[in-house]
């Protein structure tokens, strides 16, 4: 059973994943910030927002181990009170439930919801777990400023609660109350280096900037600021200049090809197979491991079906890093149609397809593939389509052969490189010819 | 599907009257079962099995518990034999039926927290119990004293059944609705009052952690390791 469930944000169409299916009731889209109700089977929009993607100290989906238990950051909210704001990260583990990581004034605390109610000894003092806890301040109003990710309650921007904090030494009990409920949370200090190490982040800053190489395309083109001067120079440039630009473009193209092929570098494929019932439930198979041995590499996932016609297979891929459990997702469709119309017989599609995932970071990956097969009817044949006389495989199963391996050159990207590289010399050559 | 292999049920099985798939029979005392294959709701009267309806297919969730999970509570072995899932406007929760010795108990699961309760009909004889039975709503913060412990109402919900699985003491039709009031005590005690069209029931117990139940046969969830505290007792 995979813990996630995918859906499209009704606000911006971005694909979102629910990591705590069955518990999560609200998702705040990480692309546009819209707040979505997922308690019912259909994702419905509660409040639509259009805001920039927030840069978080712990990117959602990151996992870290605290006190022997692995936690995944699934939600974040920024709240404020009396001009001060702080971050709250919601952590989840399906076997251990929920925890909080709170960052206020650069200090981190690790929190969990209380199961037993503290006993009120007076207005200012409570007893819980044999300790006395004293209130710090008068009750304060706390406002939720921003939310991203998923939550087991109805999060709302601008939601206010009244909160009080009780202290016992360096430990805190936070009591938050709104119209409907009272929630107690115990918060223990946690060393910020520990948080940083656990989640592989810089605990004092925003998210770690994207590591790795700058775009391979950008580095082979001219720096943007230079192109105009360069262009001006060539108006009166002698003929060898044009030839030189061609040579340079050719050289750069060769370099680009070698670089891309090197990043491609074929590895041993992981293979598997699936038998799919047409119109039946989706099925999942895991291939692996796929070892990415370089800093960044392309991974190619291929699917081929046996003889079938007028059917399609929806393919969802998740490349899951075995160490971090981070997934890179992709999708593909395997489809083949055939028929006869006034122009005679026709076919469309193919019995095999492949998808390349670029820039996969170094690591050991499992490829989780989910597939479902569907029958197509052109509307003229009575359904079901199994009566279709053209159908080569009317019995309704498709045998899929699947493979995943590092390697593969992104030809589309290479073509873009070629066009960009050869456009200037061609343009200069054209100007020369026209001038002559 | 990978990772979904459930703990193998032991003991006798019945054949579903609708599709013929085996339906495990753990407790002879429970009259209802939901076929895991076709969701047919089965009524058992003596040796006779009757299909009396369909239960809804349970929505996907990532609960670590599954039918067949075993463990220990208060020194007694238990096995999970059934489940009802309840929904309300802002979410849902699970109630797992445990076979404990010759009797049963329920393990409630909401937001990663667990409560273990058994039926406590004597609570309905209290003034608050009477008030609830007569249809009067209980306000948040209402208290009930049981053996000297103060229980405070912290959660009141109108719930509807989202479906069931396994063996159950009642049918769980799709249009089944109820009012559920949860109380908590300072010592981690849990108390629930439930009211549906047929009457009221009261449940008493406490909050428990998954590891103190020493569970065996937890559901495997792809991408997650069972934490060491739980793995120590094994995952089947």
Describe the protein in words.
Chain A has 436 residues and is of the alpha+beta class. Chain A contains 5 helices and 24 strands. Chain A has helices spanning 192-199, 216-220, 227-234, 239-264, 411-435; strands at residues 5-8, 15-18, 26-28, 35-37, 44-47, 63-66, 69-81, 84-93, 97-104, 107-113, 119-120, 125-128, 131-135, 140-151, 160-168, 171-177, 182-190, 270-277, 283-305, 311-321, 327-341, 344-349, 352-375, 397-406. In chain A, the strands form 3 sheets. Chain A has an 8-stranded antiparallel β-barrel. In chain A, strand 1 and strand 2 form a beta hairpin. The radius of gyration of chain A is 29 Å and the shape is globular. In chain A, 31% of the residues are buried. By secondary structure, chain B is mostly beta strands. In chain B, the strands form 2 sheets. An 8-stranded antiparallel beta barrel of chain B has the order 7-8-9-10-15-14-13-12. Chain B has a two-stranded antiparallel ribbon with strand order 1-2. In chain B, strand 4 and strand 5 (48-54) form a beta hairpin. The longest helix of chain B has 7 residues, at 127-133. The two termini of chain B are 17 Å apart. At the A-B interface, strand 19 of A face strand 8, strand 12 and helix 2 of B.
Topology:
The complex is a heterodimer of chains A (436) and B (236).
Chain A: E1 5-8, E2 15-18, E3 26-28, E4 35-37, E5 44-47, E6 63-66, E7 69-81, E8 84-93, E9 97-104, E10 107-113, E11 119-120, E12 125-128, E13 131-135, E14 140-151, E15 160-168, E16 171-177, E17 182-190, H1 192-199, H2 216-220, H3 227-234, H4 239-264, E18 270-277, E19 283-305, E20 311-321, E21 327-341, E22 344-349, E23 352-375, E24 397-406, H5 411-435
Antiparallel strand pairs in A: 1-2, 3-4, 3-14, 4-5, 6-7, 7-8, 7-14, 8-9, 9-10, 10-17, 11-12, 12-13, 13-15, 14-15, 15-16, 16-17, 18-24, 19-23, 19-24, 20-21, 20-23, 21-22
Chain B: E1 13-15, E2 22-24, E3 32-34, E4 40-45, E5 48-54, E6 70-73, E7 76-88, E8 91-100, E9 103-110, E10 113-119, H1 127-133, E11 143-146, E12 149-168, E13 177-185, E14 189-196, E15 199-208, H2 228-231
Antiparallel strand pairs in B: 1-2, 3-4, 3-12, 4-5, 6-7, 7-8, 7-12, 8-9, 9-10, 10-15, 11-12, 12-13, 13-14, 14-15
């Amino acid at each position: 059973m995979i813990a996630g469930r995918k859906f499209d944000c009704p606000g911006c169409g971005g694909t979102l994943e629910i990591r705590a299916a069955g518990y999560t009731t609200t998702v705040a889209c990480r692309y546009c910030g819209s707040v979505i109700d997922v308690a019912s089977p259909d994702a419905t929009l509660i409040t639509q927002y259009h805001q920039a993607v927030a840069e978080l100290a712990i990117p959602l989906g990151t996992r870290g181990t605290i006190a022997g238990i692995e936690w995944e950051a699934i939600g974040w909210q920024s709240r404020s009170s009396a001009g001060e704001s702080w971050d709250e990260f919601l952590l989840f583990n399906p076997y251990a439930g929920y925890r909080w990581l709170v960052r206020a004034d650069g200090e981190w605390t690790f929190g969990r919801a209380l199961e037993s109610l503290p006993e009120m000894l007076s207005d200012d003092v409570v007893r819980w777990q044999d300790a006395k806890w004293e209130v710090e301040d008068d009750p304060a109003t706390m406002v939720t400023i921003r939310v991203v990710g998923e939550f087991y309650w109805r999060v709302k921007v601008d939601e206010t609660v009244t909160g009080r904090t009780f202290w016992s030494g360096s430990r805190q009990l936070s009591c938050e109350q709104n119209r409907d409920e009272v929630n107690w949370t115990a918060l223990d200090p946690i060393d910020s280096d520990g948080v940083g190490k656990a989640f592989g982040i810089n605990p004092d800053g925003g998210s770690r900037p994207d590591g790795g190489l700058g775009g391979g395309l950008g580095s082979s083109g001219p720096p943007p600021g230079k192109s105009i001067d360069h262009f001006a120079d060539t108006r009166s440039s002698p003929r060898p200049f044009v030839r030189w630009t061609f040579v340079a473009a050719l050289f750069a193209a060769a370099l680009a090809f070698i670089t891309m092929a090197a990043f491609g570098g074929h590895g041993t494929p992981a293979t598997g197979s699936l038998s799919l019932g047409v119109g039946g439930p989706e099925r999942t198979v895991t291939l692996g491991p796929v070892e990415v041995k370089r800093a960044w590499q392309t991974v190619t996932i291929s699917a081929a079906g046996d003889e079938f016609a007028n059917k399609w297979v929806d393919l969802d891929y998740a490349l899951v890093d075995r160490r971090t459990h981070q997934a890179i997702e992709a999708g593909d469709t395997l489809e083949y149609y055939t028929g006869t119309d006034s122009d005679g017989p026709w076919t469309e599609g193919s019995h095999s397809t492949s998808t390349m995932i670029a820039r996969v970071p170094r690591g050991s990956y499992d490829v989780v593939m989910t597939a479902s097969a569907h029958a197509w009817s052109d509307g003229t044949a009575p359904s079901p389509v199994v009566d279709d006389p053209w159908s080569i495989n009317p019995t309704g199963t498709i045998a899929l052969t699947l493979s995943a391996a590092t390697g593969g050159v992104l030809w589309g990207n290479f073509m873009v490189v070629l066009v960009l590289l050869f456009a200037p010399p061609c343009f200069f050559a054209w100007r020369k010819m026209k001038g002559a | 599907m990978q990772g979904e292999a459930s703990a193998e049920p032991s003991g006798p099985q019945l054949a579903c009257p609708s599709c013929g798939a085996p339906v495990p029979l753990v407790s002879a005392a429970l009259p209802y079962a939901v076929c895991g294959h076709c969701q047919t709701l089965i009524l058992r009267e003596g040796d006779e099995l009757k299909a009396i309806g369909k239960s809804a297919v349970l929505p996907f969730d990532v609960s670590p518990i599954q039918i067949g999970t075993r463990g220990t509570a208060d020194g007694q072995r238990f096995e999970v034999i059934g489940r009802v899932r309840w929904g309300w406007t802002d979410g849902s929760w699970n109630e797992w039926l445990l076979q404990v010795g010759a009797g049963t108990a329920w393990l409630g699961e909401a937001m990663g927290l667990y409560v273990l309760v058994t039926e406590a009909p004597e609570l309905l004889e209290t003034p608050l119990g009477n008030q609830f039975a007569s249809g009067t709503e209980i306000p948040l913060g209402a208290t009930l004293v049981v053996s000297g412990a103060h229980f405070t109402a912290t959660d009141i919900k109108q719930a509807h059944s989202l479906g069931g699985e396994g063996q159950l003491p009642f049918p769980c039709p799709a249009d089944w609705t109820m009012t559920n009031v949860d109380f908590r005590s300072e010592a981690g005690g849990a108390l629930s009052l439930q009211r549906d069209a047929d009457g009221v029931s009261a449940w008493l117990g406490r909050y428990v952690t998954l590891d103190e139940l020493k569970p065996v046969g937890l559901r495997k969830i792809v991408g997650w390791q069972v934490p060491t505290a739980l793995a120590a007792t094994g995952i089947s």
